[in-house]
Amino acid sequence: MSMMNADVMLPGHTFPISGEAEVQRILGMYRDAMLFVHERTAALINQGVGTAKDMAPLVKLPDDLAGEPYLQEFCADIPSAVRSIL
Length: 86
Description:
elongated
């Protein structure tokens, strides 16, 4: 999506985003958050932490992403994402 250089983005569950730079910034944050959750979950699997139920509470976004309005857990949450990776 970031390669489309959109001026406006209409997310499914949040407010519209306007301005190419802001669209790119928000898409970058989404990418960074999803990559972080995936990599952290993979690391926990490799450490033998246990089940998805054990891992889910251990995966939290870093502070620089956790406070971003567009990354708040409205319709999905990180524990669900962790379970879906497994």
